[in-house]
Design goal:
Blueprint: E1 52-53, H1 69-73, E2 74-75, E3 103-105, E4 122-124, H2 125-140, E5 145-149, H3 154-167, H4 170-176, E6 190-195, H5 214-222, E7 228-229, E8 267-270, H6 273-286, H7 296-303, E9 325-326, E10 349-350, E11 365-371, E12 382-390, E13 395-396, E14 435-441, E15 452-455, H8 462-465, E16 472-473, E17 477-485, E18 491-498, E19 501-510
Parallel strand pairs: 9-10
Antiparallel strand pairs: 1-2, 3-4, 5-6, 6-8, 7-8, 11-12, 12-17, 13-16, 14-15, 14-18, 18-19
Length: about 500
């Protein structure tokens, strides 16, 4: 139950935490400029590799009805790459007709076909050899392992996903199971690994708490010694303060935006012993337990030169409109159909043939800026109310701020902002091509240009995406943002920023 992979440059580097890009120290430098119309070349974005078109896609209940045909058929992924990036995005899907050529039965190590693996537990030979070592160690430690799932063909993924959908709903299934083609299991290097004892429980193996068992803790601490890594941890913001192996209970816990999935302490992926040790080194240097804690996907992105966002948002499937991306043309994705709905503005981040965001033909425009009204939700904060006219294909990024979401208090800036109570501050460095609102006090003695920034996104998206720094589609049309700033602020200037650079003339407003 997982995601996919991506082909890109073979650069081999140890990936630590990105330093925050420098930003202008003064808000006085204002530039008039339209967005670059060649998003895939002039922005210097890294390549995802050559895309391939699968001959056909067959998964009734998914194809056409929920996911656009182009998002199902186009693949950038080299499935043979042990370091292939696997996620829920349109650029992270394995071709429907691809399977490993070196699969073996994990019990006998006899070569088998992908078709035979529908009734067997199979892995690529190198991964199967490493799994033997891992299982032997688990047995020695007193908790014999049990493999619940290994290689899963595209057709098998279809069946697995639809079974999850039948248990609840299609949208719930997308957070628990991978859409066909997006599963790491199709790589033939991934297992869902439990213990024989855990599997005896009639509630089934896929339940919370495995990470707290001796076996679960062992896998998190030692799997990389055998070449396996754990791609789906609990986000640091969501860990219980006393038990890091379970989620906190005081707030709703959505998917981890850095992985696209809820945590899975049983999901182990083989990337090779040498690579696993490099990831371990980078992970330990990143600040485990802090907002900078490195995930496998972030490390792989850096290894392959995919700098910028922490991760990529999921493919459009009709469930996550406004938080999804598509390779399909305008009007062809399931979220495009919902653009006129007031309750679900919808919209999608449209990608070009290289997997990069399609540039808008015009820039957003700053409308009326005024002092907003304080409410019970805002408390004593000062409110800046900003109207923005947003054309098609405008891209934005966190932080998503609102009176009932993240807010700026004394001393906080976009470089150190906590997304919600009991979380640590983190930075939201400007992303290439992303438009946000910039606000600064008059006079600005913060030492940071436009210290209070707000993404052009809905407050409902804050719970998930204020825990990462990603590119998001801005909703088309007129949008009103309410930015909560420190209560002592008497006057501010407001401007639109593109990739951290002011565009157009700022507007000054009194808040007293």
């Amino acid at each position: 139950m997982t995601a996919c992979a991506r082909k890109s440059a073979p650069a081999e580097v140890d990936a630590g935490t990105d330093a925050t890009p420098s930003t202008p120290r003064s808000g006085a430098d204002v530039v008039d400029a339209a967005p670059d119309t060649d998003a895939s070349t002039s922005r210097g974005l890294a390549s995802y590799g050559e895309s391939k078109l699968a001959p056909r896609v067959t998964c009734r209940g998914v194809a056409g009805e929920h996911v656009a045909e182009r998002d199902l058929r186009v693949s950038f992924v080299d499935g043979n790459d042990l370091l292939a990036i696997v996620n829920r995005s349109p650029t992270g899907v394995l071709a429907s007709d691809w399977s490993p050529s070196d699969l073996v039965d994990i019990r006998t190590h006899k070569p088998v076909s992908s078709g035979e693996c529908d009734k067997l537990h199979c892995l690529r030979k190198e991964a199967a050899d490493a799994l033997d070592e891992l299982l032997a160690e688990m047995k020695t430690r007193g908790f014999p392992g049990k493999v619940e799932s290994a290689f899963r063909s595209y057709a098998a993924q279809c069946g697995t996903f639809l079974r999850w959908a039948e248990k609840g709903s299609f949208c719930n299934a997308t957070e628990q199971s991978a859409l066909p083609g997006h599963s790491q299991h199709q790589l033939g290097t991934t297992v869902d690994l439990f213990t024989e004892e855990w599997a005896k429980d009639p509630r089934g193996v896929f339940r919370e708490g495995f990470g707290c068992t001796p076996a679960g803790k062992f896998l998190q601490e030692h799997a990389w010694d055998f070449g396996f890594v754990m791609p789906y941890p609990i986000h640091p913001d969501d860990r219980h303060p006393k038990q890091s192996c379970v989620t906190r209970w005081d707030i709703p816990v959505p998917v981890n935006p850095k992985t696209g999935y809820r945590f899975e302490h049983w999901h182990a992926r083989y990337i090779g012993k040498e690579a696993a040790q490099r990831f371990k080194k980078a992970f330990e240097a990143s600040g485990p337990g802090t907002p900078n804690e490195l995930t496998l996907e972030q490390w792989l992105r850096k290894v392959k030169g995919l700098t910028g966002p922490d991760a990529e948002i999921p493919v459009c499937d009709g469930c996550n409109c406004g938080e999804c991306a598509t390779l399909a043309a305008d009007g062809e994705s399931s979220c495009d159909e919902k653009k006129k709905s007031r309750r679900s503005p919808g919209g999608a981040l449209h990608l070009d043939e290289k997997g990069h965001p399609v540039a808008s033909s015009s820039a957003p425009k700053l409308g009326e800026v005024k002092r907003g009204r304080a409410t019970k939700r805002t408390g004593d904060a000062a409110i800046v109310e900003v109207k923005v006219e947003i054309p098609e294909h405008v891209v934005t990024q966190p932080p998503i701020v609102a009176p009932d979401a993240a807010r700026y208090t004394k001393g906080s800036t976009f470089e150190k902002l906590a997304p919600y109570p009991a979380t640590s501050p983190r930075a939201f460095p400007p992303l290439e091509g992303a438009w946000v609102i910039g606000v600064e006090p008059v006079p600005n003695d913060s030492g940071v240009a436009w210290p209070w920034r707000a993404g052009l996104s809905l407050p409902s998206h804050a719970q998930t995406y204020d825990r990462a720094n990603v590119l998001l589609p801005a909703p088309r049309g007129t949008m009103t943002l309410k930015v909560a700033v420190p209560e002592e602020t008497s006057q501010v200037r407001v401007v639109l920023l593109e990739a951290g650079v002011p565009r157009g003339e700022p507007t000054t407003v009194d808040l007293r």
